[in-house]
Design a protein that fits this description.
The structure is a homodimer of 255-residue chains. The first copy, chain A, is globular and about 55 Å long. The first copy, chain A, is 46% helix and 20% strand. Chain A has ten helices and eleven strands. The longest helix of chain A has 27 residues. In chain A, helix 4 crosses helix 5 and helix 6 crosses helix 9. The C terminus of chain A is likely disordered. With 255 residues, chain A is an alpha+beta fold. Chain A has a four-stranded antiparallel beta sheet. Chain A has a four-stranded antiparallel beta sheet with strand order 2-7-4-5. The first copy, chain A, has a three-stranded antiparallel beta sheet with strand order 9-11-10. At the A-B interface, strand 5, helix 3, helix 4, helix 5 and helix 7 of A face strand 5, helix 3, helix 4, helix 5 and helix 7 of B. Chain B binds a DNA duplex (30 and 30 nucleotides) through helix 8.
DNA sequence: CGAAAAGTTGATCTACATCAACGTGCGTGG
DNA sequence: CCACGCACGTTGATGTAGATCAACTTTTCG
């Protein structure tokens, strides 16, 4: 894996020139390896970096003083974290490794600068941000209006989909490092209820679950149970109209 | 209000040059006025615009086939909507006017182009996006881990804060055009429960509520009840480090 | 002024939380 | 290599926040 995952991620959507690819590679400040449980970004800590997750899972989460915790999103290989934290004054949530994590660290300001000079990169980053926002919106829908059963089904389909487009899932299964407690914190449920709900999903023949591996036995059934509409994941490329504008930009710009 | 709200909104955080301001003004495609209930963005409709809300309230929401609905966010004067919808292939949620709305319409592609040539503008837009994402994250926390009482208190404080920084709220009150049904759809609660919970907030002497006006009687109490931490709203300006980089960019760039 | 929309209140139901106990796999130290 | 401990998972009993159903009042608006 010589090219960073970031390059690959972006190139799914826009083709990059050699110079653009180089500029991205130059951002990579340091390669880091973190044990499970360690923090990549700490809420309220002023100094912070962005990270590109290259291997392992992380969570973005907020904690209350009284011990309540909410997982805002899962960060999988290929995901960028700490970007908003870098743009805003201080991070308003933490990012912690769920498994051992390998990641590329970079200065958000350097990314901003690099991207500011290259319209196509800027569009790609905006695009990544918009997609993240779409995911959060869908999570709001889950928490607000879906039952525990639907939420869990939905999350499983989402995770599989996100891993699958990156070639990190098998045809019908994937490794699930999150404990039931973490799932509960992501879905706004108690551990006990996550357990019972998983049990029901198994009873209903939708999934199998063994040694931290989820096998989806009935995709249609699971997606139907979840009211899952894949559109919000936006696995497709940047809209034609936008791309055309930016190709113009590229030809007509300083080059 | 000759200058667009967008200009004012951005200038809270970075100073703009005359050219930058002009470029933003040039984006304004058309001024539109919409009655309450009408849609600015329709889920699944391919053609779409971005809008800068100039007056009135709107909601971003998703609807299920079975009638369930979730309000993802409120859009207040000064807010940008339809931006992610413009970047992504198709909008994954709708935006509807809650009251009559005055808004400036623009092509998202034109914004992308304008912004791509001006680092400071790009940073400002990225900054606006990051702030929106922070709001959604906080909403996820509310829905996942806060009680109805806390959620409602939290929302009221948030709305007041957002209106107040824009000079749209009185010292301790604001006009609240959302019905209890809409509040329910935003908070993941039933109308009945919203009603009872509002009642409790009144009983406890935290708010008063008359003719669609919320008066906050006890800010501290309400914020405490909500576990409200204002940080996530990011009403402060762009971090110094980032600003410095972009000022450099401005001096050194093509100009 | 009348009708429809919004708000209010009570009774009842249920999805999920909480409490409690026990099972199971696994890494660590004796 | 066994045994202890601990994190995680599982299951049952019970409690409760909030949903649902139903009726009524008040406000809004054409």
């Amino acid at each position: 894996m010589q090219h960073s995952l970031l390059t690959r991620e972006i190139e799914v959507f826009v083709e990059l020139g050699a110079d653009e690819r180089e500029a991205l590679e130059a951002l990579r400040e340091e390669q880091i390896e973190l044990p499970a449980e360690s923090a990549l970004v700490v809420e309220d800590a002023p100094a912070h970096h962005g990270f590109l997750i290259e291997d392992g899972w992380a969570i973005r989460h907020k904690s209350f003083d009284d011990g309540r915790r909410q997982v805002v999103d899962f960060a999988l290989p290929g995901d960028l974290v700490g970007l908003p934290a870098g743009i805003l004054q201080r991070p308003d949530h933490s990012v912690s490794a769920l498994t051992p994590v390998r990641a590329a660290r970079f200065e958000p300001e350097a990314l901003a600068e690099t991207v500011a000079r290259r319209a196509r990169l800027a569009a790609a980053v905006a695009w990544i941000g918009a997609r993240q926002e779409a995911r959060l919106a869908e999570r709001i829908v889950s928490l607000g209006r879906r039952s525990a059963y639907e939420r869990l089904a939905h999350l499983l389909v989402e995770l599989w989909s996100r891993l699958a487009v990156r070639g990190l899932a098998d045809r019908d299964s994937f490794a699930m490092p999150a404990t039931q407690a973490v799932l509960g914190d992501a879905l706004g449920l108690s551990v006990v209820h996550v357990n019972r709900t998983l049990h029901r999903l198994r009873e209903d023949g939708l999934i199998r679950l063994e040694s931290r591996t989820v096998t989806i036995l009935d995709f249609d059934g699971l997606a139907r149970a979840a009211c899952f509409e894949p559109g919000y994941l936006h696995h497709t490329s940047i809209p034609e109209r936008l791309r055309r504008r930016l190709d113009l930009e590229r030809d007509g710009g300083r080059g």
